[in-house]
Amino acid sequence: MTMDKTFDAGRVEREIYAAWEAAGAFAAGANARPGAEAFCIMIPPPNVTGSLHVGHAFNNTLQDILTRWHRMRGFDTLWQPGTDHAGIATQMVVERELAKTNRRRTNFSREDFVALVWEQKVRSRDNIKNQLKRLGASCDWSREAFTMSGAPGAPAGEEGNFHDAVLKVFVELYNRGLIFRGKRLVNWDPHFETAISDLEVENREVDGFMWHFKYPLAGGQTYEYVEKDAEGVVTLREERDYISIATTRPETMLGDGAVAVHPEDARYASIVGKLCEIPVGPKEHRRLIPIITDPYPDPEFGSGAVKITGAHDANDYTVAKRGNIPMYRLMDTKGHMRDDGKPYVDCSQRARKIAEGDDYTEAEVDLLNLVPDDLRGLYRFEARKRVIDQITSEGLAVTILNPDYDPEGDAPDMIPLVEAKKIMQPFGDRSKVVIEPMLTDQWFVDAEKLAREALAAVEDGRTKILPEQHKKVYFNWLREIEPWCISRQLWWGHQVPVWYGPHMINHADHPLCDRFSIHQHTKNPQVPESTKTGGYDWECAVTEEEAVSWFTQIWGAPVQVAPSEEAFLVEFNRLQKGEIDYVPIFRDEAVLDTWFSSALWPFGTLGWPEETEELARYYPTSVLITGFDIIFFWVARMMMMGTQFMTDADGAPQVPFHTVYVHALVRDAKGQKMSKSLGNVLDPLELVDAFGADALRFTLASMAVMGRDLKLSTSRIAGYRNFVTKLWNAARFAEMNGARGWTGDGLPEAHETLNRWIIGETARARAACDAGLAAFRFNDAANGLYAFVWGRVCDWYLELAKPLLAEGHPARAETQAVLGWVIDQCLILLHPFMPFVTEAIWGQSGARTKMIVHADWPEFDAQSPEADAEIGWVVGLIEEIRSVRAEMSVAPSAQIPLLIVQAGEEETARLDRHAALIGRLGRVPQMTRIAAAPKGAVTLTAPGATLCLPLEGLVDIAAEEARLVKSLGKVDKELKGLTAKLGNATFLAKAPEDVVAENRERLAEAEGEASRLRGALARLAEMG
RNA sequence: GGGCGGAUAGCUCAGUUGGUAGAGCGCUUCGUUUACACCGAAGAUGCCGGGGGUUCGAGUCCCUCUCCGCCCACCA
Questions:
Q1: Which residue is nearest to nucleotide B69 (CA to C1')?
Q2: What is the distance between the alpha carbons of residues A310 and A278, in angstroms, rounded to a whole number?
Q3: How far is the CA of A473 from the C1' of B72 (A)?
Q4: Where on strand B do bases come within 7 A of a protein Cβ?
Q5: CA A382 – C1' B75 distance (Å)?
Q6: How many Å from the CA of A110 to C1' of B47?
Q7: Which H/E stretch holds residue A837?
Q8: Three-state SS string across A67-121, please?
């Protein structure tokens, strides 16, 4: 069969992939040598939100290269594929889809909605899988995993036990005291109406304003306000009946619990402990709040006085916690000012009592709605405007002189002080809306404790992070880690395995009473008002049965699970009225942060919590290949969970991977980050269609420099598409010359210098490729192979071999064998990078016992220094001849003899041995010995020989002179440098011997070269 | 406010213990030599961001400055 002129990637890629799958080529352990070491990569599971972008193509190409490389080397190899349920992101996709037909999530029951998301999951998963296959990813698809497999509601075909693993981990951590529930200030996303973790918040600088308002002192009191400059000179002294406050968020003033000043701020010392009035809301019952001291306010900033709104600001929260300042929740889950039907509360008396040390429970405080009627239901930013207007109209805004004031005009002399200011504002990374700090009950992981082992593992090298600069980032984050908020108010995800029931008061004699003591509760715990603030008893259990039996035991009565908290409250009401005879309980409606389950990926995919054979074989995994953007989200969490749950035979924690290779980002044409939500993603399939998967893969590999972002350009991909064609044609050439695949053992026999040379070159290329891959220097490996295949094999070996392949040449058989072998080596070495074309060629040439996907990776070495020297000399001579011909504008068709004026013994032998190919490639069919260079001959640069081309009449003398002068200039410059260097005593004394020797050699060569050039110039002068 | 990365040929970028500045693309000239025009041959192009230092020797190490990019961070 004859090969086509070009490789038709589009036609054969699918066939080849299907053949690999049919052969089970990617199965765990396929092609493993007996007793082989394991090599395992866990795919970073793509989100089931849609399709893959080029970043995924990059990431998976690198994984596939390593996987195929190890598989060919006989390792017990597993590349574990799968996808991530990506809670918030996937739910968002489905909700967006519903919105197109004017429907919302709440038009469905939770169950029905989740079923819709499963449909999305299946669609997306199929799509992703197809894309990975198009790329040539050699995953073991029979083991495909999903972070929510086996969860309730999973359709047929989505079985698995990942859900079990997640619940087990949650319950275990809970029992170990590493998961806790608490009312804390969390990042609240008003769009999705859920809490999110710190990591899911993007802080961006935006244009904002800072308003300055007067908080009047209670009862019209006054004090002397004195300002001094740095030298202590009084710059302002006035009588004030207010304290000035600066804020960027006036709408939160309604929830202020205090005004704080620095303890050493002399300006306010006289009013500390007094009360001031929040200047907003109905005048008749405005709230009074205390002026307190706290180290937090910076006296140099603003007025030095800070309003403390514990429920809506992270800084204020810590101050409020510290100072026992009440925190008043002002907004609902959508970011609207609370409108819950409760009357506006006159809190001034309460505030006074609190200032005097009388405490209220959080639950009670949370029930207070401090939003005045006219602001209720308004979106937070609308409320802000109203508050500003109201304060300003009352004259309680701090004012400054109007710079535009004109006594003749209408402009007022004083205007409110509003500073335009850049402020850092938090945004949801998915929703892109402004995050609202909110006080809510959430579940947290005690990340600090989990981080200890994760840190230690990297510190002591059990897990290596490459490139190393990322280690620092990892350390910094883990060392200052905060509790991880893991509950999400979503429907898509692993539901928190905790069940709540009414709180029992008289339980002191109950055998399980110790489990009650940790609960916070209201003063009237029998009435759990719908605040989700506690007041419940709860049980954390892997199954509902366990939870039910626990509550049954507590109550000594039948227990029924209500579908939601809302339903529970209805039933509880009926219970109190004696209408039902069972105790209602309900399951926590929140789901877990998607990263909580992703964190279990390295062992959850291997069957944990069951003790599977795969777990024993492949954990800890070998390498994780991932982007730096998820070091915190994912890598750190896997390290935490892995070291927490996986142990070796001695009980020591086992890390999830030996090496983490952090690759850079693939950016779009503008160098911008690609993101699913921004929609600027490139479709790798389009690139595959246009250039073939091999070209795309090779491009990505060749650009995979550690730690540096890459910008993908199609011209580069086209270049590697050409490389695919080049390889294809080299193989075609071999086939046409009767060089089939190498079937023998070991290396082919080679006596010809040329053949020994290319075998040595191949060995070096192999070693360089191995070294590159072993060091994760994909670019070095790829570029080295490119240079070898194109620059060595195609440019030189094939050309030089042509004479030897001529019919009847004594070395024909040997050369055919070596050529066949060399092509095979190229295919094998390139296979991890370009699996399709290499498999296609492999299948066409020679009798194969197995596919290249399982071909043996070479390990030979076979250097031949004298062959290298000889071929190097010949190549140099040919290049010199071509160069001279081109520069002298000799017609390509002109056949010229090569004149040998003088040549050493070795050089003479080389000229003899390679006369045919020098003649062919240099277009110098005859070699003639001659005593002296004739007139008009151009001297060639050839070490150890004086050779020239008789170009009399063909030569443009001026051009030749220019050429010689230019060359001489270069050589002279080098000579000068070398002479100076070798004349330097300290250089000779301090530089290593080999460096000195090398310089001497270079000097000798340069001197020879210079004298040859001078001689040629002299001859030229005679001619002229 | 901390931390990290980058500045090398027109463009995109390599350059791993300091020892003759490289690749791809682009550009110029030439080419129907039977593997390949997705090709071949030849060629041009660099104060390796500025300044200082260490060294026999610095693109490479140290200090400093300038300009980009990114990450983290609670200044109202």
A1: A671
A2: 15
A3: 9
A4: 3-6, 12-16, 19-20, 23-26, 29-33, 35-43, 55-57, 70-76
A5: 25
A6: 69
A7: helix A835-844
A8: HHHHHHCCCEEEEECEEECCHHHHHHHHHHHHHCCCCCHHHCCHHHHHHHHHHHH
Segment A837-882, tens digit of pLDDT: 999 999 987 678 899 999 999 998 888 999 999 999 999 899 889 9
Would the pLDDT of A1 be above 70? Answer: no
Residues 6+ away with beta carbon under 8 Å from A771? A777, A780, A781
Q: How far is the CA of A9 from the C1' of B45 (A)?
A: 37
Among A289-298, A583-592, A942-951, which is the least confidently predicted range?
Answer: A942-951
Asked if the model's pLDDT at residue A11 lies above 90, the reply is no
Task: Say which nucleotide is closest to residue A988, CA to C1' distance.
Answer: B56
User: The tokens 């390593």 sit on which residue?
Assistant: A66
pLDDT band at A283; cut points 50, 70, 90 = confident
Taking alpha carbons only, the member of A829, A462, A421, A481 closest to residue A636 is A481
pLDDT at A504 over 70: no
The spacing between the Cα labelled CA in A1004 and the C1' in B56, in angstroms, equals 20
Q: Beta partners for A40?
A: A78
Please state the pTM of the whole predicted model.
0.91
Which nucleotide is closest, CA of A726 to its C1'?
B36
- Cβ pair A275, A288 in contact under 8 A: yes
Q: Which nucleotide is nearest to A672 (CA to C1')?
A: B69
Interatomic CA–C1' length for residue A964 and nucleotide B48, angstroms = 29
Residue nearest to nucleotide B4 (CA to C1'): A469
Those residues with Cβ within 8 angstroms of residue A406's Cβ, 6 or more apart along the chain or in another chain: none
Lowest mean per-residue pLDDT among A7-11, A128-132, A402-406, A899-903: A402-406
**Tell me, in Å, how far CA of A711 is from C1' of B12?**
8
- Comparing CA positions, the residue from A857, A868, A832 lying closest to residue A766 is A857
- Whether residue A716 is predicted with pLDDT greater than 50 in this model: the reply is yes
Complex ipTM value = 0.94
Nucleotide with smallest C1' distance to residue A787 CA: B23
Q: How far does the CA of A352 sit from the C1' of B17, in Å?
A: 71
Task: Give the span between the Cα atoms of A914 and A874, in whole angstroms.
Answer: 8
A27-48, pLDDT tens digit by residue? 999 999 999 999 999 999 999 9
What does the pLDDT look like over A508-518, one tens digit per residue?
443 333 333 22
Q: CA neighbours within 13 Å on the CB side: how many for A1012?
A: 23
**Residue pair A172/A98 in contact by the 8 Å Cβ criterion:** no
Q: How buried is residue A54: exposed, middle or buried, by Cβ count under 10 Å (0-12/13-18/19+)?
A: buried
